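Why predict the complex rather than its parts? Because the way molecules touch one another can change local conformation, and only a joint prediction can capture that. The input here totals 567 residues.
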Amino acid sequence: MSGDTFATPQTQDRDVLLDVRGVQKIYTGHGRTVEAIRDLTFSVGRGELVCIVGPSGAGKTTLLKCIAGLLEPTAGTVTLDGQRVTRPPQSMAVVFQEYGRSLYPWKTVQQNVELPLKQKKLPKARRQELVNEALAAVGLGEVHDAYPWQLSGGMQQRVAIARAVAYQPQVLLMDEPFAAVDAQTRADLEDLIRSLWHKLGVTILFVTHDIEESVYLGQRVLVLSSSPTVVMEDLPIDLPDERSQLETRSGRRFAELRHHVYEQIQLAKHRKGSEPGPDATPDVVAHGNAV
Amino acid sequence: MSIDAPTRRAGTMPARRQSGLPDWSLGLFGLVAFAGVLELLPRTGVISERYFPPFSAMVGALVEAMGTDTFWSATGETLQAWGIGLAIALVAGVGLGLLIGSVPILQRLTASTVEFLRPVPSVALIPLAVLVFGITNIRSTLLLIVYAAFWQVLIQAIYGVQDVDPVARETARSYQLGRWARLRHLVWPTALPYVMTGVRLGAAVALILAVTAGIVGIGQGLGWLIVRAQSGNDVPTIYGIVLFTGLLGVVVNLLARALERRALAWHSSVRADLGG
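Output of the joint prediction:
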């Protein structure tokens, strides 16, 4: 694979919605310090669907929490629509990996989805409208009065997605949302995300450790290095916009992209953020897809 | 994908069967056997009938006592003190517990004091109660009951508040839930199972103290009836009223459990989990 097969994205004339600049996060405590993220800089354009992939322990969740305003970065800034993020912004919604803990078991599906809308002080009729629309959009029109724990894992994550959708965010942050569901459900949920993205025009930042998932979902894939973390590569995914689990995944271009990201991840495992980033070496053999 | 039909509640689960009999019938059999032993021991002369009358005599004395107004007014007084005392302990324990539990510095400040005051037996406060409120004042009884039940509720509430799931908390923060909304929709429901345990434990000790107060001469509840029977050398009545207080304890516990099941239908200890 030659270097020019994979173009660098054009960042100059985009309408930037989310800007991450020089973000560093050092955890201190119990007499030791851990540098989870060293220096992350990237931006996400309005309406983009960007995937972040990296080896386990690369600080993906830390990064996402910094962006969500749940963690304060040690250095650097996160800017959303021109406003610096210092606390969770109202135009952002987060979908966590642990749907079972993120949904409140003492509330029904309806109440879970509606709770953030009450905080927005929306009138009751409008809230109900948004709840109905969001649940219908994720294919759960019939379960309003069920409790989350009465549903399967995949359905619970749909409820969490519906809660985020009903909130009408500009940016949807997703932290390995499908890591805990089975393969078939996962494929369905991936397609759900693509279709929601098309339908709502929302900007999505999707963190995953699954290479195939990142390539299948994203318009761009950001490959992170091992901790202390930097962005190793910003890879545009030049697959057709209309994607299908069967066609897209068996295509030649998909295989090339997956292969490339896999190589980068293999490199990332052995490279810390401080070292310069060489091009992918061709002698790294791909065995599988998950990191 | 479809949701399974209405959740089975723990209470309607098929009873575990042993030797072909449902559990409750075995329990009942145990009680009957116990009563039989109590009946036989004095009748066969193994223990003296003077200090340990047969079970039938105890029940007879209780039934006889139940025919008097004094018995029912004493029961009413004991239950009144129990109810008021428990309510005060509950409100104070939950309120302070929520506050202390959600402010880490407050918790560190109070932890040692709580650990010091908690083991002080309520009965050790009897002389103080009598001095402050007098022997016939219901406040004396209430002081004992509140002191005993308060710590049970407080400790549970403090633990409950600290059990809030980090992911649930981050969810609340990212959806802009304010302090009051977090307390109402996240902290309180999380603490509720703990508070319910506190209520159950508190209700039991409150009843003990409500009876104790009468025995030591404060108020005129069931405890006072026991003392009166003692001074009249009426041993069967002593046992009869003791049996009755035991029954009250069972009823209190059953009520607390029913309340718990109702309030915590969503909780993993009560619900039948269907999700993966």
